[in-house]
Design a protein that fits this description.
single chain; 406 residues; mainly alpha; 67% helix; globular; Acyltransferase 3 domain-containing protein; Glucan_succinyl_AcylTrfase; acyltransferase activity, transferring groups other than amino-acyl groups; membrane
């Protein structure tokens, strides 16, 4: 295995690859929702499968925690290089501004796709006005899938506040941070963080075990499990930024983390209904507590396993992976309306569910990559989202370039 941690100035290609993979998995995740055994999504396909819900569970277990861990690590590196003022300016331009601008486009696309789906199902006559939307409040405002950017801004603000207090500890704070990083990167890290997350899930009376950490896609006040779970992942990444040699330890522990993820995740899956997801809270208190603990531990074990896989086998430079890493942010922003539109167009076809899923994923991926190549990569939008604008005839990227655009 090549050393994933060569020097602080080199780009972490493995983490780039994991970030791209996790963002692109959002297409698969949302495409699966139409094929659940019971309707849980805006589009309910004529073909249903328990395999689709199982695939959703596996992806959802680690995807967002991985993204927040990487976000915390990259943010800490940027803070160290640029300082707080430049960091705030960069995050405002590349996270807050896209949230404000693309939310309108995402909502317009989602509404158009929902109207088309209702028309194709005969629930709405063509040309008829759609039913009125519920009133928007601070608790019901639809952040859509862009909630990830909103929660990131909350965590960035929290990091700056905590950092100002932490600096008062001086060298004691540095030593404490190093010890915490070493503890979390050790074998007990997923158990410790998972137990805290599990306790927060258990404290939610209406927690649906199959869907794990409640995604804060509605309202401006995220739930406690979302803030705790994603905040822990972000904090873990931030601590690892100061001890990047510990990433190699996590990579070496891959068999342990992968085994723990399979055991804990399988337990949570079975308790949450297995092939037929429970759409109500688990009634038995003991089983509910076990499900919460299993899901919490499984989340961080699976996140560390994904991190280990990326560091072991994707730590070298790859032009294809780098291109996908650049494109993944744009595809994440635009994918959900496209997924919903593709699901609406295919919902009445008598094809096997897996065939429909493959067509939806392939079609949305092609549309995302095509629009990125034509509209984003070589335009001001690419500079806005990725920190640089590439000319149409760009020279090949070097095998190792600085961590400048995370």
């Amino acid at each position: 295995m090549s050393d994933p941690i060569a020097s602080p100035s080199e780009r972490l290609h493995g983490l780039d690859a994991l970030r791209a993979f996790a963002l692109l998995l959002g297409i698969v995740l949302h495409a699966c929702l139409a094929f659940f055994p019971s309707q849980v999504w805006l589009v309910a396909d004529a073909q249903r499968s328990t395999w689709a819900s199982g695939l959703f569970f596996c992806i959802h277990l680690f995807r967002m925690a991985s993204l927040f861990l990487i976000a915390g690590l990259f943010a800490e590196l940027m803070l160290g290089r640029k300082g707080a003022r430049a960091f705030v300016k960069d995050r405002a331009a590349r996270i807050a501004a896209p949230l404000l601008v693309f939310w309108w486009l995402a909502m317009a696309g989602l509404i158009a796709a929902m109207v088309l789906s209702a028309q194709l199902q005969g629930l709405l006559k063509p040309g008829a006005a759609p039913p009125p939307s519920p009133p928007l409040t601070l608790a019901t405002f639809p952040l859509t899938h862009l909630w990830f950017l909103y929660v990131l801004m909350i965590l960035y603000a929290g990091r700056l506040l905590i950092g100002a207090l932490w600096r008062r500890l001086g060298t004691r704070g540095t030593r404490l941070g190093d010890r915490m990083a070493a503890l979390l990167a050790g074998p007990a890290g997923p158990l410790l963080m998972g137990t805290v997350l599990g306790a927060s899930l258990l404290a939610q009376p209406m927690w649906l075990a199959f869907f794990g950490i409640p995604t804060p896609d509605r309202g401006f006040v995220p739930s406690a499990p979302a803030l705790i779970g994603f905040g822990l992942a972000y904090a873990c990444g931030a601590l690892l930024a100061g001890r990047r040699n510990l990433l190699d330890r996590i990579a070496r522990q891959l068999p342990l983390h992968l085994g723990t993820a399979v055991l804990a995740g399988s337990t949570a899956f079975v308790l949450a209904g297995g092939s037929t997801p429970l759409l109500t809270p688990i009634a038995d208190g003991g089983l509910r507590a076990l499900a919460a603990l299993s899901y919490g531990v499984g989340t961080f074990a699976a996140t560390f396993a994904a991190l280990g896989i990326a560091l072991r086998w994707c730590s070298g430079f790859s032009a294809a992976r780098r291109y996908l890493a650049d494109a993944s942010y744009w595809i994440y922003i635009v994918h959900l309306p496209l997924v919903l539109l593709a699901q609406a167009l295919m919902q009445s076809l008598a094809w096997p569910w897996w065939c429909k899923l493959a067509v939806v994923v392939a079609g949305v991926s092609a549309a995302g990559l095509g629009s990125y190549a034509l509209l984003v990569r070589h335009t001001f939008i690419g500079r806005w989202l990725n920190g640089r604008r590439l000319p149409w005839r760009a020279s090949p990227l070097p095998a190792r370039d600085a961590v400048a655009a995370h």
